[in-house]
Amino acid sequence: MSKKSIILLFLIILTPLILYFVWPSDESRIKKVFKKGTKAVEQEDLDEVMSKVSFNYRDDYGLTYLYIKQSMKSVFQQMSEIKIEYENLKIKVTDSTATADMDVRVIATIGNDTGYIAGDLAKPVHLKFTLEKERTKWLIAKTEGMRFNY
User: How many CA atoms lie within 13 A of 96 on its CB side?
Assistant: First the structure.
């Protein structure tokens, strides 16, 4: 066997292994959705927030993609200094869908008042998100457990 054949064979075997270890897992991609989505809400970046939501979004509250977009626009006009804390993130992935459970607290300022908008120090709001894989991207398709204090 020539050196070229050995190198080619080595590359053929090595390339899938490198891709396996370098390519992010579905779970890490989902974590990134929430990390970037949280940052986008705190920065009041509506386009970035909506880039994490599926056009097919529909939940038990009757919310859709367009309704969420209008609601977020209104929230950003009424509130400032929004801070989101989430913990106990648990992700379950099955094929092209996933669920993410987490405990959330949201603090914001409305006028001159600052306080908890969702959850509080003693008891955070428990949210469950359903995500769908659209191409190589995970997007939020449904939310359960929303309760707000305002």
Answer: 4
In this predicted model, what pLDDT tens digit does every residue of 120-132 receive, in sequence order? 888 999 999 999 9
Question: Which of 41-47's residues contact partners 24+ apart within 8 Å by CB, and which partners?
Answer: 41/72, 41/82, 41/84, 42/82, 42/83, 42/84, 44/76, 44/80, 44/82, 46/72, 46/73, 46/76
- Among positive and negative, which fits the CA dihedral 87, 92, 95, 98? negative
Between CA 117 and CA 150 the distance in angstroms is: 6
Q: Which residues pair with 31 in a beta bridge?
A: none
Q: What is the mean pLDDT of the chain?
A: 89
